[in-house]
Amino acid sequence: MRLAVIPARGGSKRIPRKNIKSFCGKPMIAWSIEAALASGCFDRVVVSTDDPEIAEVAKSAGAETPFVRPADLSDDHAGTLPVIAHAIRWFQDAGEEPKEVCCIYATAPFVQPQDLVAGLETLLTAGADYAFSATAYPFPIQRAFRLTGTGGAEMANPEQFSTRSQDLEEFFHDAGQFYWGTLQAWLEERPVFSPMSRPIILPRDRVEDIDTPEDWRRAEWLFQALRAQ
């Protein structure tokens, strides 16, 4: 069985009810559910939540909510790895054995079915623990600076001040959309970012981290612009 697990707890604080807040005409979580279903990758698409309202919205969008996430995995400190491991063990206890499991974030409206397919193919062909979405930093991180105690600025890597941008190594970051993993990797809670993982590189204009109201507004503008194309 191939399983999609969409974690969606009810306690978002910076953007209240973020998982089910309307984003470009649909509850935010609906975009992730629809992409999972459209990909054709999964035998089951489930939402792991502690919140009855989120569960109802998820079911209306086509997902299953066969269990209630326990309280100890629903606070601000609950990590993704134990949440996915809990979902896997629930299915094992019910007599079903997931093989490949994909965590899809509920706040990832830019996730595309074809990227989920690419992630699965990469996981299988590379023999990796995980295949996850990533993208390049838009500006060389070697040119980053920090604020000093007096309000000034100092470079994090001053030795790179005179290096041309095109000569600096390109760096990447987690796109926060999906994480394909093997059963063993999830249950053993192996680290996602390791030599045993493979990134699926996405274009920067399809990646947006949505943590603040400002992020939300920018994401809606970008989402609408992409749809207009």
TrEMBL record:
A Pfam family annotated for this UniProt entry: CTP_transf_3
Domain of life: Bacteria
GO MF assignments: N-acylneuraminate cytidylyltransferase activity
Signal peptide: none
Keyword tags: Nucleotidyltransferase, Transferase
Tagged with keyword Magnesium: no
Record has Aminoacyl-tRNA synthetase as a keyword: no
Gene3D superfamilies in the cross-refs: Spore Coat Polysaccharide Biosynthesis Protein SpsA, Chain A
UniProt cross-references to InterPro entries, sorted A to Z: CMP-NeuNAc_synthase, Cytidylyl_trans, Nucleotide-diphossugar_trans, PseF
Protein name: Pseudaminic acid cytidylyltransferase
